[in-house]
Amino acid sequence: MTATFPYTLIACPCTSFTSPSTINPSSVEDPDDDTTFNPHHIRANFSLYPYEQLLYCDECHQIRCPRCWTEEILNWFCPSCLFEVPSSVVKSDGNRCTRNCYSCPTCTSPLSINGLDSSTKDHLAPPDANQPTGPFFLSCPYCEWSSLDVGIQFNKPTKITDQLVRMRSGNRSPSPGRSRSTRTSLAPTDELSSTEPHSTPPSSQPSQDRFATLSRFYKDQMADASSAGPTGYSDNSNFNSPNSLARIMSIYGGLSHAALKKARERPQPMREALDAAEGLELLSHSDDAEATVIDKLRTEGYEGTTTLTQRVSHPYNHRVRFTDHLWPTATLLRTRRSKRCRTCRHIIARPEPKMGNTRYKIRLLAQNNIPRLALRLLSPTASSAPASSFALTPAALQAQHNTEYEKLRPGLPVQFLLTLTNPLFEPVRITLATPATTPGNVASRVTVLCPTFPIGAASDMWDPDAISSGTAKDQSTEDRQPEAGKVWERGRNWTTVVVEVVPGRLDKKAGSTTESTTGDESKGADDDMLEIPVFIRVEWEAEVTAEDAAATGAAKGTKESREIAFWSVLGAGRITEL
């Protein structure tokens, strides 16, 4: 749990601890009746959240945690250029930026486009005209990696993705049976640099290149099947093709028109590959290739090999072994998402549609709709110590503050001040409930001196004389004593009550690693932590809105009673033996 004391955590109502007795349908007891939240439960860490991580649904009037809402993708955008990408483009091109946004494969820093010849021949031209000329390359300003290390250069500073795709396509050997137009489309264009690698044999092609070869072979077969038309006959048809053989068999086989139509709907078998360039060729290991890899590994060392993060950064780098073979990785797209309540599908969080804006258009925070709790010691032990003659640093003050909460003695009563702040614009009535002894292996006695009290609204006007009654504020601060049934202090929209705690004694047997028989207790790792479960019930009168009036049939502007109840855990400190 949290290490800094004191702290406050909220339990979402969607979490329910189940046991074999509650799962059994023959059990007559209701598991929700008189059930105390156990902060030492093995599942408690998955149900407790701080205030800033919780949202609130104003339709259900309940707290919502990450398990209570669903996320919907509003749009995709590139974090580097802030360009919004349509969802259709993401489905077709993938979840990476297709513009000029690339990251370093070594340190993941953004890459910049630079020119090899940045000087200009016209010295009389204005400074704005000094634009770098080609060829261009990508360089990292952090680790000084550049695309020149892997032999990649560009003739244009734009359309980097298209040039890289053509470079990858240029490594593939064309099929002999392919038409001249197909070869021309796949051949490197004049936009590629002269340092582009030459075509490699199929046995040395990477896995993605071999897959692209099979994909082209499959598309060619589909094109041949569709070019024959509904009759299965074309001008340049090959009588040895499966379509021609199927057409001849259907003509001389005595099939009817319905049978012919049904046969044409079936997928026709594909021909076999004419050579190894069209078909699938398994990866063949040669002794020379392995010897080359071993020699390079001895030369480069372990620092020259790629890590798992670098290999999974981009599909081009999946099979790369050494860092000098890494290709630049395109920037991953980000999403802007809205959150909806799982119960009523109401929007509880929605960001602004503009890319450069980080604010939310709708965001219903739980801390703006439920009371906020704060716990502190009534009379800290450090107050009796002499004051320091020098000014303490913030770190020293925080360390001294934490020491006060980490020295709770067993059996010695300690009084805390619990402050509740009302964020609503209506006055509320609070009811606090806590078990007599805290659950867990170490039982500490807890008493709330004033369990029921009202809190004023969060408005700009308040009357201190009207709320002074019922408070123990008549005496001085040093002589004041907590009284049962009275609040300690009260303000405009906050109230402070006294909570008395008697820490339990640490049992060494209870703090062992043996698990309890019921499975509800922890293994004793945090038994010395004093965590107080408090059940809070809030009641208030709110005006009926137009939407609520249409749903419930009540008159608009009338008052209706609302309430919300939830469990919270107060981290009071740590128990230490004498």
UniProtKB/TrEMBL annotation:
Superkingdom as given in the UniProt entry: Eukaryota
Subcellular location: Cytoplasm, Cytoskeleton, Microtubule organizing center, Centrosome; Cytoplasm, Cytoskeleton, Stress fiber; Cytoplasm, Myofibril
Keywords, alphabetical: Acetylation, Coiled coil, Cytoplasm, Cytoskeleton, Isopeptide bond, Phosphoprotein, Ubl conjugation
Composition bias type Basic and acidic residues, residue spans: 475-487
A cellular component annotation (GO) from this entry: dynactin complex
InterPro entries: DCTN4
Skewed-composition ranges (Low complexity): 166-185
Pfam families recorded: Dynactin_p62
Residue ranges of the region described as Disordered: 161-209, 461-487, 505-526
Subunit structure: Subunit of dynactin, a multiprotein complex part of a tripartite complex with dynein and a adapter, such as BICDL1, BICD2 or HOOK3. The dynactin complex is built around ACTR1A/ACTB filament and consists of an actin-related filament composed of a shoulder domain, a pointed end and a barbed end. Its length is defined by its flexible shoulder domain. The soulder is composed of 2 DCTN1 subunits, 4 DCTN2 and 2 DCTN3. The 4 DCNT2 (via N-terminus) bind the ACTR1A filament and act as molecular rulers to determine the length. The pointed end is important for binding dynein-dynactin cargo adapters.
Listed PANTHER family: DYNACTIN P62 SUBUNIT (PTHR13034), DYNACTIN SUBUNIT 4 (PTHR13034:SF2)
UniProt similarity note: Belongs to the dynactin subunit 4 family.
Protein name, as recorded: Dynactin subunit 4
